[in-house]
Design brief:
220 residues
Length: 220
């Protein structure tokens, strides 16, 4: 069981309510949310902590899909849309200060998390370094992967490449791979067009730079 819980103050500030007084000064809210997202196991978490863990994991998925460049001035994540805010408000569990939860409050809390992550990116020298140090299971999220598979049905092309991407982690902290073609559906719409371009641009860049050719393979 965890030694603390999270809830809201009348000001709308997310606050740690520790069972141990010494735990109150261990982390700021941004770091604590990041730590929740980085945790591999949700066993023993209160409904409130599970809610904020999912909140932070949603942010981490979006952050990992962003370009890992501009280390000295990382680009902030985009604000929530009304469509994204409503499920978070409707899905909030009973918790301390639940009556103070609102769209602007959620946005401010995510901004605190984003500010902490951006500061760590600047300090450590990149998101990859931060993930390797504090959340290694998130390292592959947001990346495109190519798998060489046996193609028994075609003797002329005995092998084929299957492309997949990792948009998120499971509740147990395992990477979830999906066919790359699903990205066209998942990131459909004007708001997600930029995310799709960011996801696919490394593939194009690698093809241009390396000019790879595979005479005995073809895409499945």
């Amino acid at each position: 069981m965890t030694a603390y819980d999270l809830g809201l103050l009348p000001s709308g500030r997310l606050h740690c309510f520790p069972s141990n007084a010494d735990d109150a000064t261990t982390h700021d809210i941004g770091e604590r949310l990041f730590t929740l997202a980085a945790s591999r196991n949700s066993t023993g978490l209160s409904p409130s902590l599970q809610y904020w863990r999912n909140f932070a994991r949603q942010y981490m998925s979006e952050r990992c899909l962003m370009p890992r460049v501009a280390l000295q001035q990382p680009e902030p994540v985009k604000p929530f849309t009304d469509t994204e805010t409503m499920p978070l408000l409707m899905g909030a569990p009973p918790m301390r200060g639940a009556e103070y939860l609102s769209g602007p409050v959620l946005q401010r809390i995510r901004s605190l998390l984003d500010t902490w992550v951006c500061e760590q990116i600047q300090s450590l020298g990149g998101l990859d370094v931060l993930l390797a140090k504090r959340a290694p299971q998130w390292h592959q999220v947001g990346r495109v992967c190519f798998h060489l598979a046996e193609n028994k049905g075609d003797p002329d092309y005995p092998f084929a490449f299957m492309a997949s991407y990792a948009p998120e982690l499971s509740e147990q902290g395992h990477i979830r791979y999906q066919p790359l073609g699903h990205a066209l559906q998942e990131y459909a719409g004007l708001r997600n067009k930029e995310a799709l371009i960011r996801l696919l641009s490394p593939v194009q860049l690698a093809a241009v730079r390396r000019q790879l050719t595979w005479p005995v393979t073809r895409q499945l």
